[in-house]
Design a protein that fits this description.
With 390 residues, the chain is of the alpha+beta class. The chain contains ten helices and ten strands. It has helices spanning 16-43, 48-56, 75-88, 90-109, 112-124, 238-274, 286-314, 320-345, 356-366, 373-385, and strands at residues 129-132, 148-152, 155-166, 173-179, 188-194, 200-202, 216-227, 231-232, 276-277, 280-281. Helix 3 packs antiparallel against helix 7, helix 4 packs antiparallel against helix 5 (112-124) and helix 6 packs antiparallel against helix 9 (356-366). It starts with 15 loop residues before the first helix and ends in a 5-residue tail after the last helix. The chain has a four-stranded mixed beta sheet. The chain has a four-stranded antiparallel beta sheet with strand order 2-3-7-6, with no helix packed on it. Strands 9-10 form a two-stranded antiparallel ribbon. Strand 2 and strand 3 (155-166) form a beta hairpin.
């Protein structure tokens, strides 16, 4: 691996405070995250201490209300923080995005009493969250979930299995979508479940091709009892809450994808300048220069797309279509850019001595999580042509 540090991205940030914030994030990434990323990913080690550090630095609640411990940063800034973290290590960048997703329901739909009771610890108290929507038989078709929550006096009893849960087994709290009514999206309700709830267990984490340091596991709810005071929103409002969270979460995935792609480009440029063949740096050869140019263009286009969607969100305007476009384009771009980075490094790119093979494996999952890219195309098409008539 080269000793050259990548040049910081030239960012357009709205305030001096946000510029200082990004400088802090870069410092933490360079000092605490990037140096250990390859070793810890290879060993499958989850860096919980990094998330504790990020919480202490106020980086786990950036887009939320300051009165509850949030950073009150616009999404335009928050997403660029995610990009920097993901460029250093996707396990961390995506982990922060998932944590933010887990806080979204309570922050947006919880009562003032619930927010006062739980949000300070969730946003800045060292806790780490996870989001429980998918199930073994309900992935893209999330409205068909079967995990049940049955009313029992002032409590709800949750029974079922959730799948593909990032931070499964290590999270301190879970935002859980469960069926409380009839089949379909209107019969789903959201709950805030403590990580140590009796009857809640995690399966052995999945063995994945990438992001080995981020635990992804099934969660089993065996009569987990939660008080009604932990129900988020109204009964039957859960799917609406879930979709709103996913729109925001897709922007997080888009930003992480750009971070991964930027890291791969940085490695490819550095290698191309250092590596000599036929008496010249390989960066002198036009075919390779054009590859680098195309990679950089994809990254800039993806960054512009996710930031445009973020600014719509910050302005209170609809952004669902743009979020789907950003997630689709940025993750496809990350897959293309990381693949090209491996090609530029040649045989070295295929070895674990250089990070581009890891970045390529990590980019793949971003085309799948929080709605596959095929689902994103369906979302975009529905905005253009309306629902399918079949």
């Amino acid at each position: 691996m080269t000793d050259r540090a990548p040049q910081p991205v030239d960012r357009q940030l709205p305030t001096e405070e946000s510029r200082d914030l990004l400088a802090l994030v870069r410092e933490i990434a360079q000092r605490e995250i990037r140096p250990r990323a390859a070793e810890e990913e290879d060993s499958g080690r989850f860096p919980r201490e990094v998330f504790t550090l990020l919480s202490e630095a106020g980086l786990l609640g950036l887009p939320y209300d300051g009165s509850f411990g949030g950073g009150e940063q616009p999404y335009e800034v928050y997403l660029q923080v995610l990009e920097e973290l993901a460029a250093a290590r996707l396990t961390v960048g995506l982990g922060v995005s998932v944590h933010s997703l887990a806080c979204h329901g309570l922050a947006g739909y919880g009562s003032k009493e619930q927010q006062s009771a739980h949000l300070p610890a969730m946003l800045g108290g060292g806790l780490l969250g996870a989001y429980c929507l998918s199930e073994p038989a309900a992935g893209s078709d999330a409205a068909s979930l079967t995990t049940k929550a049955v009313r029992d006096g002032d409590d709800w009893v949750i029974t079922g299995t959730k799948a593909w849960i990032t931070h499964g087994g290590v999270a301190d709290f879970y935002t859980v979508l469960a069926r409380t009514g009839a089949p379909g999206p209107k019969g789903i309700t959201a709950f805030l479940v403590p990580g140590d709830a009796e009857g809640l267990t995690a399966a052995v984490p999945e063995k994945k091709m990438g992001m080995k340091g981020s635990p992804t596991a099934q969660l089993h709810f065996d009569g987990v009892r939660v008080p009604d005071s932990r129900r988020i929103g109204e009964e039957g409002q859960g799917f609406t809450i879930a979709l709103a969270a996913l729109d925001a979460g897709r922007l997080g995935i888009a930003a992480c994808a750009v971070g991964v792609a930027q890291a791969a480009l940085d490695e490819a440029v550095t290698y191309a300048l250092d590596r000599k063949q036929f008496g010249h740096p390989i960066a002198d050869f036009q075919g390779l220069r054009f590859m680098l140019a195309d990679m950089a263009t994809k990254i800039e286009a993806g960054r512009a797309l996710y930031l445009a969607a973020a600014r719509l969100r910050d302005a209170g305007k609809p952004f669902s279509r743009q979020a789907a476009m950003a997630k689709l384009f940025c993750t496809d771009a990350a897959m293309a850019v990381t693949t090209d980075a491996v090609q530029i490094l040649g045989g070295y790119g295929y070895t674990a001595d250089f990070p581009v093979e890891r970045l390529m494996r990590e980019a793949k999952v971003l085309q799948i999580v929080e709605g596959t890219n095929q689902i994103q195309r369906m979302v975009i098409a529905r905005h253009l042509a309306g629902p399918e008539t079949r």
